[in-house]
Specification:
The complex is a heterodimer of chains A (188) and B (209). By secondary structure, chain A is mainly alpha-helical. Chain A has helices spanning 2-13, 16-20, 24-29, 34-63, 72-94, 96-102, 113-124, 129-159, 169-184. Chain A is built from nine helices and no strands. The longest helix of chain B has 30 residues, at 120-149. By secondary structure, chain B is mostly helical. Chain B starts with a helix and ends with a helix. Chain B has one domain (2-208). Chain B has ten helices and two strands; from the N terminus they run H-H-H-H-H-H-H-H-E-H-E-H. A two-stranded antiparallel sheet of chain B has the order 1-2. Chain B has helices spanning 2-8, 21-27, 31-54, 64-86, 88-94, 96-99, 105-115, 120-149, 160-163, 185-208, and strands at 152-156, 167-170. The chains are: A mainly alpha (188), B mainly alpha (209). At the A-B interface, helix 2, helix 3, helix 5, helix 7 and helix 9 of A face helix 2, helix 4 and helix 10 of B.
C-alpha cells in the first residue's frame, strides 16, 4: 500500500518536472512531435530506473563502506553517462529506425537533470531498494506523462493566435504553469 | 569587454539560449538564493572554461564529453565540500540543485563550443561574460518572484554566519499581492513565461525600428 502511494505521489503530486523542474531542457527542446516525445520519454524511463538502481548499489556498497560519500555526484554522473552510452550502442545495433529519428538526442539524456536528480533524491530520501525502484519508475513515468501531454498541446500552441513576442518558449512556459497548477494544486 | 557584454545580453544563457533552467526555476524563490546560485555557477563556469581550454590538447576526441563532465564534476564536488563545511545553511538551501550544476547545460555547452576551440584567454572571458549574464538574469528573476510572492527581499539569510545577522527587507504588503502563487512551482513557470514574453515583445519592437 505504501509503495502504491509512493508511486502515485512521484507520478502526479510531486511530479519531477512540474514541482522540481527536472528535465526541462528536453521538455522544451524535444516535444515538437508527439512521436518523438514519447520515444524520448520511454528512453528516459529506462535510463532513470536503471541508473538509480545502479547508483543505489554503488552508494551503499562502495561509497558508504569506504567513507567517500562526497564523491557521489561524480560517481553517479559517470554511471549515467555509461548507461546512456550503452543505450546508444544497443539502439544503433538493434533498432536502426529508432536510431535514425532519435540518434542525435540520445547523448543528451546524460545531461537531463531528471536522471541525476532522481538518483540523488533516492539517496537523500534514504529509500530502501524496493522503494528506490518504485520511486524512480513513478517519477520517470511522470516525465513521460508530462512530455507527452505537452507535445500534444504544442501543436495547437504553434497555430494559436498568440502575441508576437510570446510565441515559442514564453507561451510554452505559461502552458506548463497551467499544467503545473492542475497537477499540484495551487500553493502546495 | 565587448565579449563580456555579448555574454550578458546577446547570448544571455537564460533569456536567449534557454540553458540551465532546472536549477534556476527551483532556486529563484528568494533573491539571496538566486544571487548566490548565480555566483556559484559563475565561479564554476569560469574555472571549468579555463581548465578545459588549458587541457584541450590532452582530451581525445572520442572521450570529449566524459572528460568535460569529469572536470566540471570535480569542480562542483569541491564547491559542495566547501559549502557543506563552511556554509551549511546555504548548502541545505540549495539541496540537490547544487549537485545538478554538473548537468547544467551552460557549462557543458560552453565547454564544447568555446573552451575546446578557443584560446585560454578567450575561454576565460567567455566564461566570465556568460556567467555574469546568468548571474544577472537569475538575480532579477529571484527578485521579481520573491517580491511578488512574499513581499520581501532577502539579502542575508543562509549566509547569516558571514554577516552576523539576517537582513530581510519588506517592500510590498496588500490584499492581492504578495501572492504565494509566485513562489510555488506553477508560479515559476507563469512568471518565467510572462517575463520572457515581455522581453520578446521588446526585442520585436527593437527589430522593426
Amino acid at each position: 500500500m505504501k509503495l502504491i502511494s509512493l508511486f502515485f505521489t512521484a507520478l502526479l503530486a510531486e511530479n519531477i518536472v512540474l514541482t522540481k523542474f527536472l528535465g526541462l531542457c528536453p521538455l522544451l527542446g524535444n516535444s515538437r512531435k508527439e512521436e518523438n516525445a514519447y520515444k524520448m520519454g520511454l528512453m528516459v524511463v529506462f535510463t532513470v530506473v536503471l541508473s538509480s538502481f545502479i547508483s543505489y548499489f554503488f552508494y551503499y556498497q562502495i561509497l558508504v563502506p569506504t567513507n567517500t560519500t562526497h564523491l557521489r555526484t561524480l560517481i553517479f554522473i559517470f554511471t549515467i553517462a555509461s548507461i546512456v552510452g550503452s543505450l546508444e550502442i544497443l539502439i544503433k545495433r538493434y533498432m536502426p529506425t529508432l536510431y535514425k529519428s532519435m540518434g542525435l538526442y540520445i547523448p543528451l539524456i546524460t545531461t537531463n537533470c531528471a536522471v541525476l536528480g532522481v538518483s540523488i533524491l533516492v539517496i537523500d530520501h534514504a529509500f530502501s531498494l524496493l522503494e528506490t525502484l518504485v520511486y524512480s519508475l513513478g517519477s520517470s513515468m511522470g516525465f513521460l506523462l508530462v512530455i507527452y501531454v505537452f507535445s500534444t498541446l504544442r501543436v495547437k500552441m504553434e497555430n494559436a493566435p498568440v502575441l508576437e513576442g510570446f510565441k515559442g518558449t514564453p507561451i510554452a512556459f505559461i502552458t506548463l504553469g497551467i499544467i503545473a497548477l492542475l497537477f499540484t494544486r495551487y500553493g502546495l | 569587454m565587448r565579449k563580456i557584454k555579448d555574454g550578458m545580453i546577446k547570448e544571455n544563457p537564460l533569456t536567449v539560449l534557454m540553458l540551465g533552467l532546472c536549477s534556476t526555476m527551483a532556486i529563484s524563490t528568494t533573491f539571496e538564493k538566486s544571487f548566490l546560485l548565480g555566483v556559484a555557477v559563475l565561479l564554476v563556469l569560469v574555472l571549468s572554461n579555463t581548465i578545459i581550454s588549458l587541457s584541450k590538447k590532452w582530451i581525445g576526441k572520442s572521450v570529449t564529453t566524459p572528460s568535460l563532465i569529469l572536470i566540471i564534476g570535480t569542480l562542483v564536488t569541491i564547491l559542495e565540500l566547501l559549502l557543506s563545511t563552511f556554509l551549511k545553511p546555504l548548502y541545505d538551501a540549495f539541496g540537490i540543485y547544487l549537485s545538478l550544476i554538473v548537468v547544467n547545460c551552460i557549462l557543458l555547452g560552453r565547454g564544447l563550443q568555446v573552451a575546446m576551440k578557443e584560446s585560454v584567454r578567450n575561454s576565460f572571458v567567455d566564461g566570465l561574460g556568460i556567467g555574469l549574464g546568468y548571474l544577472a538574469s537569475i538575480s532579477f528573476f529571484g527578485f521579481f518572484r520573491e517580491i511578488l510572492g512574499n513581499g520581501t527581499i532577502t539579502l542575508v539569510d543562509a549566509t547569516e554566519k558571514i554577516f552576523g545577522q539576517k537582513i530581510v527587507v519588506t517592500l510590498l504588503q496588500g490584499d492581492y499581492l504578495p501572492n504565494a502563487l509566485f513562489i510555488s512551482p506553477a508560479g515559476a513557470f507563469l512568471t518565467a513565461g510572462i517575463l520572457l514574453g515581455i522581453l520578446g515583445m521588446r526585442r520585436k519592437k527593437h527589430e522593426t525600428h
